[in-house]
Specification:
It contains five helices and no strands. The protein has about 130 residues and is mainly α.
């Protein structure tokens, strides 16, 4: 949960670097919330009336996490030494999303790069547990 909160603390920060752990904890928590909201919507809908409120909650949550998700993905790309503009590769049909996924799975540069120091080194945007 601390990694998820760190992502929210840096929600509009498009500079610097983010570790894989921070990125994937944020994405996992968002996926769990969306699945829960989807199941909630299915449970409260029937053929006579759609469950507009739960689907509205899903849409609202998606809009709220859009900028933080974009920011953490850009910082994740910075961690492997790529520009944040590489995010746009996700819009290439068929392979773009796969390429972006591979980028997010790669280990970051072990040393300082043009986007900042290694976030794995203590004292650089780390989580105190």
């Amino acid at each position: 949960m601390a990694w998820y909160l760190l992502a929210w603390q840096r929600a509009t920060d498009f500079s610097g670097r983010s570790r894989r752990k921070e990125y994937w904890h944020f994405q996992l928590f968002n996926a769990i919330v969306m699945i829960f909201l989807g199941l909630f919507a299915i449970a409260f809908s029937d053929q006579d009336k759609p469950a507009m409120i739960p689907f509205g909650l899903m849409s609202a949550y998606g809009l709220v996490v859009f900028v933080p998700s974009l920011a953490i993905t850009v910082r994740r790309l910075h961690d492997i030494g790529k520009s944040g503009w590489w995010y746009l590769i996700a819009f290439v049909p068929l392979i773009g999303g796969l390429v972006l996924f591979v980028f997010t799975v790669l280990d970051g540069d072990p040393e300082r790069n043009e986007y900042g120091p290694n976030p794995k080194v203590p004292g650089h945007a780390s989580v105190v547990i």
